[in-house]
TrEMBL record:
Pfam short name (any one): Iml2-TPR_39
Domain of life of the source: Eukaryota
Entries under InterPro entries matching the protein: IML2/TPR_39, TPR-like_helical_dom_sf
UniProt protein name: Tetratricopeptide repeat protein 39B
Amino acid sequence: FHDAINNKLELDAHLQKPQVETSHYVICDKSPRMAHNTIELDKNLEEAELAIYYFFNNKFDEAKSIVLSHANTSMYHSMGQAVFSFLEAILTFERAHILQAGDELQSCLDICQKYRRKNTISESIGKKIKRTAYYTLSDMEAHAELCMAEALLLKALLIFAEDESLTTLIKCGVKIRHCYNIYKECTLTLSNREWQSQISKVHFESGVRMGMGTFNLMLSLLPASVIKLLQFIGFSGDRDAGLEDLNRGYKTPGLRQVLCAVTLLGYHLVVCYILGHQEGDLVLCDDILQTQLQKYPHGAWFLFFKGRLEFMRGNLGSAEYWYKMSWRSQNVWPQFHHLCFWELLWVNCLKVDWREASLYASYLVESSKWSPTIYSYQKAAIMLMLPNLTHNESQIIDTLMTTAPTYKQRIAGKSLPIEKFVCKKTERYFCQGKWLCLPAVELMYVWNTFKVLSKQHSVADGIYQIIERKFNELKNTKTQHSYDADNIALCLLLRGAFYRQMKKNSLAIKDLKACIALKNAIKDDKYIIPFANLEVGLVYADENQVDLAINTLEEIKKQYTCFSLESRLHFRIHTTLIDLRKRVAK
């Protein structure tokens, strides 16, 4: 509570700064009813801020107690309750939790609707809006617009998580366009009206910055084909503008300041490394975490992100320490434990500690419901890396490989691409006489953890030796098998990607070109060739041969289609092209 008071003092100090003059606008109604609404809003914002403080310090029961007290009458209490349910639904993907979150969000929308002015901004989209519409809104009505946008966005994402059919995509697109336009109107409302309460203005600004920043960032990550569709229905994304808004929101001591911090950490520490090949802003992340861990020293979220920061720096021992701190910091949300187990699994794979990695893989198989198919295959893949397997261990692997495809599920209306990839690998395991070529190292590449190799050469050497031994073993085998080309091509891709991370560009190009030359001989693993071309393009980018890199990446989109992990490749190409074209523009 002491830290919550400090947050309040920080906000008060911010409010003492000179405010922008707004005397040229019409003054808001100062009626007793409006004054009462302003007091009520400020009180609700204060309680919402305390709930957020409790939530990020793992005091979940206290946070829920606050939001439940007025969830049926206050839009901010209702929003808090809806957000808690939404997070649980996304973390579990369980049908019951998704339905409950949908009900909570609809309740929040109903409450927001009661506080909105009739014929308000968002209902006039597509029409010419009078200038007076912005500053004649009361503070309560302005916040109702903002909460409406947030609830609409979460509801659309939840609907899309249930069913990703074309009809649902269009339906969600309309909802998201609606809330995006509300956010844009809220941006104008922020500056084009005189605020009854400067406290509510600061909280409103943090919401606008978070909403517009997240939208721009999210849309900028989507591949060109999706962007064309979104622009057709009124969207476009600007990554730099999104990051600027989120940074401004983080520096504004408003209600959503901590949410801006979480979004920035998620982008720079997770998204950048999974969907792209560029580095996140680790200096910014370090600064954010130092501040947030002072406010939330036991917070599972920030302890987790601290572990992720150390992981991306290549400090595997330190990463392991912080992930375990996050895991052991709370027991209310076991789903958060699973995130830590996932990360600890890959930390130990990079350390070539297959026993420890298989332990965390076992935890995921036993306790997480997200994707039993992926978890089962990952455990089997890691166990296959163990030397001198016992008879019992071989039986466990066989069972995992047999059962993994039976758990295949439909999330967002269709099968996960990575699950399809895994199912093909389980088939290969039996077709090849119960073995696979470097299955765990292949998964490390697929999940883009090779990026860490360049940060820690001692770790990199262990992975290199494994790839090198297997490659030489395959080259020296006299017996021919139908999947020889697939396995040799995989080794060349992995070694070429390794060389690129170690800045040995000539060796990387040599291996990648040899891999691509096996194109017609590959029987099953067709994904290897477009990914090898991607690595070639990235080598050119590293050498600052920008035009050649752009041409190489564009050709991949034209030449290759219908292969495993295609959408993952297109995301990585898209994010790389953004950076390359920025270089050209300079």
